[in-house]
């Protein structure tokens, strides 16, 4: 393998294994197809298993953890929104129950053809 191909393979492997860059980003950055990326990664891993293991062990958790942090924040916000919506629905139901009991008039729609 000549120097340029080895440098390209090392760069792709480092991006993928060490920095957790998705294959799509590697494809866009290097202007190569996904098949080529996977072939280069496979060949590199076969020919240099020790280097790949070192890259995996020295992986930068920042990029992965940053994405996880963002997803956890988004999940927490959505859970909070869901909780508030459920509480609002329960409050509306309770309000309708009280109105029906106090004023003795049906507020809720009846299902079916006769309403």
Structural commentary:
- This protein is mainly alpha-helical.
- The chain contains five helices and no strands.
- It has helices spanning 3-18, 23-30, 34-47, 49-57, 61-103.
- Helix 1 (3-18) packs parallel to helix 4 and helix 3 crosses helix 4.
- The longest helix is centred in the C-terminal third of the chain and has 43 residues, at 61-103.
- It is rod-shaped, with a radius of gyration of 28 Å.
Supply Rg.
Answer: 28 Å
Beta fraction of the residues? Answer: under 5%
Question: Can you give the mean pLDDT?
Answer: 87
Sheet with the most strands, sense and barrel status: none
Number of helices: 5
Q: Which structural class is indicated by helix and strand composition?
A: mainly alpha
Which sequence of SSEs, written as H and E, runs from N to C?
Answer: HHHHH
Shape: rod-shaped
**Portion of residues in helices?**
over 70%
Number of strands: 0
Low-confidence stretches: none
| End-to-end CA span | 80 Å
Give the structure's gist in a few sentences.
The protein has 115 residues and is an all-alpha fold. Helix content is 78%, strand content 0%. The radius of gyration is 28 Å and the shape is rod-shaped.
Question: What is the fold's blueprint, element by element?
Answer:
Layout: H1 3-18, H2 23-30, H3 34-47, H4 49-57, H5 61-103
